[in-house]
Write a structure and sequence with these properties.
- By secondary structure, the protein is an alpha+beta fold.
- The chain folds into two domains: 2-75, Glutaredoxin, CATH 3.40.30; 86-203, Up-down Bundle (Glutathione S-transferase Yfyf (Class Pi), Chain A, domain 2), CATH 1.20.1050.
- It has helices at 10-22, 41-46, 65-75, 86-112, 134-153, 167-179, 191-200, 204-211, and strands spanning 2-5, 27-30, 54-57, 60-63.
- Strand 1 (2-5), helix 1 and strand 2 form a beta-alpha-beta unit.
- The longest helix is centred in the middle third of the chain and has 27 residues, at 86-112.
- The mean pLDDT is 95.
């Protein structure tokens, strides 16, 4: 099992935090997104979608970060990060989808349409999709609306989907980190998000991830 990885990027960050929570040992190969190594023929041969991360298991390729997490969750069920009971699973997925579409995608919309190195690559992968500058401000506005929503959610719960840490917290924290790339601080004037994020950063899995960039 080999994870093709670039830990700084949002989707790889999701998988890295998930792996750390599960305490799984995975062989890694770093693919430098900043140099567009993911679009080189040898990597496109493995993953034609041209995205990171992707996991190679017995000559099978699993791309998409949540698909990777679900595979690893099945292989290592404890702790359960996608939920245990039917209602818990549904609640976690409900919030996770909200975070992904209203938060992570919003920040991505602003980022990929504003960065010069993504000219003609507004969407991840090898396809040539032109940037739309008008989407920058819309993406930023959507991101701020999402953080207002998240702040309200965290007013009455310790974690995003209730009183138990889950994949929804990982996704929300990744969105919080990603938003900094578009110069948005989701904790500003949002004390519930700030307290929640500080609490997460005390977890061993988050400390291990953040230590990757302090060496």
């Amino acid at each position: 099992m080999i994870l093709y990885d670039y830990p700084r990027a949002p989707n790889p960050m999701r998988v890295n935090l998930f792996i750390n929570e599960k305490k799984i040992t995975v062989e890694r190969k770093i693919v430098d997104l900043s140099k567009h190594e993911n679009l080189k023929p040898k990597y496109l041969k493995l993953n034609p979608w041209g995205t990171l991360p992707f996991l190679v298991v017995k000559n099978k390729v699993i791309s998409e970060s949540i698909a990777i997490c679900k595979y690893l969750d099945h292989m290592s069920p404890s702790p359960s990060l996608f939920g245990s009971s039917p209602i818990e699973k549904a609640t976690i997925e409900m919030f996770r989808r909200k975070i992904e579409f209203d938060g992570m995608q919003a920040a991505g919309e602003a980022f990929r349409n504003s960065v010069k190195s993504f000219k003609d690559r507004a969407f991840a992968g090898p396809g040539k999709i032109p940037q739309i500058p008008q989407l920058i401000e819309r993406g930023k506005a959507r991101t701020e609306v999402f953080f207002d929503f998240l702040n309200k959610v965290l007013k009455n719960t310790k974690y995003v989907a209730g009183n138990k840490f889950s994949i929804a917290d990982i996704d929300a924290y990744v969105t919080l980190s990603f938003a900094k790339w578009i110069k948005i601080d989701g904790t500003e004037k949002r004390k519930n998000i700030k307290n929640w994020s500080l609490n997460l950063e005390k977890r061993k899995s988050f400390i291990k991830y953040n230590n990757l960039f302090r060496k």
